[in-house]
Design brief:
By secondary structure, this protein is of the alpha+beta class. It is built from six helices and seven strands. The protein folds into two domains: about 140 residues, Roll (Nuclear Transport Factor 2, Chain: A); about 35 residues, no CATH class. The chain is about 25% helix and about 25% strand. The strands form two sheets. The chain has a five-stranded mixed beta sheet with strand order 1-5-4-3-2. A hairpin with a 5-residue loop joins strand 4 and strand 5. The termini are far apart.
Length: about 200
């Protein structure tokens, strides 16, 4: 199989199988002994599992489209760097539809057999970025604070249990007073009971 034929097979998979949901095309592109190394838990790592993955993605993201950013082929393998764009319109791994648009980057590696059909597939995609775009994982400090219930102000922080030897800045002495213990100088300020931050 020529290197260009490998690239054409991958492009056909993205366009016809993933983009249009034509599962029958898998018979032309994927070998019976195919191994899917990126299958989620509970999904078989074979051709039937690949069909399940496609169905799951298309039911959650019916308008999904892949853009090939880079593609390389050498020997019996082809590599693609892609961007997936879609709208979350259905249940996805227990996450109800959010109607949010996502844009997820990924890299796919496919090993082909002598007949030109895919034998193995490895995938690496930005799953965390996808979950952040779906609103499942916080994207910034404020969202993370809200998700974990962390304090927003020093007054809120005063209600938390502070580990010994590590007081909050508001509990230290005013600027200008330095540690006076003998030995090398300490970087922390002195408190009423002695050094507030010495080891």
């Amino acid at each position: 199989m020529s290197l260009e034929s490998q690239k054409a097979a991958i492009r056909r998979f993205y366009d016809e199988v993933m983009g249009q949901g034509k599962l029958e095309v898998l018979d032309e592109l994927v070998a019976l002994t195919y191994v899917e190394h990126g299958a989620p838990p509970g999904v078989p790592q074979n051709k039937e599992g690949l069909a399940q993955i496609v169905t799951m993605l298309r039911s959650a993201f019916p308008d999904l489209q892949f853009t090939i950013e880079d593609e390389l082929a050498e020997g019996d393998r082809a590599v693609c760097r892609t961007t997936l764009r879609a709208t979350h319109l259905g249940d996805f791994m227990g996450i109800p539809a959010t109607n949010r648009k996502i844009e997820v980057t990924g890299i796919d590696i496919v090993r082909f057999g002598p007949d030109g059909k895919a034998l193995e597939h490895w995938a690496n995609q930005d799953d965390m970025g996808m979950m952040q775009q779906l609103g499942v994982i916080p994207t910034g400090p404020e969202e993370a604070r809200l998700a974990t219930g962390a304090p927003r102000t020093k007054r809120e922080a005063g209600r938390l249990t502070i580990s010994p030897g590590r007081p909050w800045p508001s509990q230290r002495s005013p600027p200008g007073r330095r540690c006076t213990r003998p030995g090398p100088p300490c970087r922390s300020r002195q408190s009423r009971s002695g050094c507030a931050g010495c080891p």
